[in-house]
Amino acid sequence: MEADLNRVEAELGDVEHALTRLDAGTYGTCEVCGSAISDEGLQAAPAARRCADHA
Ligand SMILES: [Zn+2]
What is the pTM (predicted TM-score) of this model? Predict the structure, then answer.
């Protein structure tokens, strides 16, 4: 159960981070190289912070 809880907390953190990036206008861009993350990538992981090259 503890592992599940940790995973949920990590996912929540990712979602909060994504919301911050939405506010900042940087949602959907890679934090490493700044290029846009593909629609496919965002569908698979809506809170993705990095492009496929830097995932
Ligand atoms: Zn990148």
Answer: 0.72
